[in-house]
């Protein structure tokens, strides 16, 4: 098989700056305690409450938010989703009240997503998507001039982000073309699959692109039938999955039970299936109850820092066992990686800027100065080492670089869809609708905006 796109994958740029060093991500709870407060429903805000609860019990995110590192350095005027989440998580986990009102989130709902209204029901997956994007925008405020690869090194991408690889093979001449795309969550088709593992198998099974989806092969110089295979190329620290329960656009719901394990191995769904298992453990899930997608109710199950599972249904927080957790009509599933940062695989397939063996897990609190400096830590590919970019921070004040653009949604970065120096394969001319229909960004405008990011790993460690 002739590999036409080999040079493209090898020539991909490393991020110019690591906005959040992955070795600072702490996957284990820094504080153990009973679960925090429930969340009052302000009318039809259960879809918001479940996502807030699942994010609150995401250990690496909660550890970071509880450290207050963000707000200490935040210069954002007005709406900042990271500041809002920091205050929210603190309030939920520190409050002695049984339930609190998530007022700030509801107040700023329109900044999180224009489609949301406080007195209208919404979709939990849509809210998760928008909340992550809003946090990503907050992390990039003041860094809006970063290259596209650097934008994928915020704490949000370091926690939730991975890369998908799409390999398109011309079935006539066997030429192949690879492209890569960042994701923060994955949407899985469950029409046929009866379990998460089967849905993931289905996800990585090659699909034929023909008819209106056919592509033009530049070698054959005509439209051909091609085969496309999507695989997980780099695993995230937190793997977030939506089981697509909308049967169609009418609101009809796929209500069947889809089995999901407490421990999930992502290795079989990787581009490289050889190697150690990549184990994940379930720590939160969102359930939709109701006969259609247009009505019903959302509640969730989360594992608190004390290791116990709780059913969280708006104001109520009730202890439950793992057996109850694994028997739900799950809609969203949250899995946390069990692989340590020193794990070679986590180094090569985990996140940007993590050369595995050379950096160890560092969960300790650091001084503000060190934290600022670490934001400017860069991987020097020529010398195969980390170095500090002293031009990126102000030595005398220890302050982050000043914002160069005003706050706002103008420079919003949608996951994997922002323009940038991506490496689109020159071998294929995608025709309309030949979109990535299987990844988390399915609701965004399709294809010609399909974006490819190819990473380049350090050649030696
Ligand atoms: Zn902020
Ligand atoms: Zn061909």
List its traits.
23% helix; disordered C terminus; alpha+beta; disordered N terminus; eight-stranded mixed beta sheet
Written overview of the protein:
By secondary structure, the chain is of the alpha+beta class. The protein has a single domain (6-449), classed as Cysteine proteinases (Cathepsin B, Chain A, Alpha-Beta Complex). Helix 2 (46-56) packs across helix 8 (124-140), helix 3 crosses helix 5 (81-94) and helix 5 crosses helix 8. The strands form six sheets. Strands 5, 10, 11, 12, 13, 14, 15 and 16 form an eight-stranded mixed beta sheet that branches. Strands 4-3-9-6 form a four-stranded antiparallel beta sheet. Strands 8-7-21 form a three-stranded antiparallel beta sheet, with no helix packed on it. The chain is globular, with a radius of gyration of 22 Å. The relative contact order is 0.19. It has helices spanning 6-10, 46-56, 59-67, 69-73, 81-94, 103-107, 109-112, 124-140, 148-151, 155-160, 196-204, 322-325, 344-349, 368-375, and strands at 38-39, 99-100, 162-170, 176-183, 186-189, 207-209, 215-217, 222-224, 226-234, 238-244, 263-265, 279-289, 297-303, 309-313, 316-320, 330-337, 377-380, 385-388, 393-394, 399-400, 428-429. It contains 14 helices and 21 strands. It binds zinc ion (ZN) (2 copies). One zinc ion binds at residues 170, 172-173, 175, 217, 219-220, 224. One zinc ion is lined by residues 170, 172-173, 175, 217, 219-220, 224.
Query: Could you give me the name of the CATH homologous superfamily?
Result: Cysteine proteinases
Bound molecules: zinc ion
Q: Rg from C-alpha positions?
A: 22 Å
Examine the coordinates and then state which fold CATH places here, giving the name of the CATH topology: Cathepsin B, Chain A
| Shape verdict | globular
* Number of spatially distinct domains: 1
Structural class call reads alpha+beta
CATH 2nd-level architecture: Alpha-Beta Complex
**Mean of all residue-level pLDDT scores:** 76
**Low-pLDDT sequence parts:** 1-12, 341-461
Any idea of the CATH class?
Alpha Beta
Tell me the major beta sheet.
8 strands, mixed
Kindly state the number of beta strands.
21
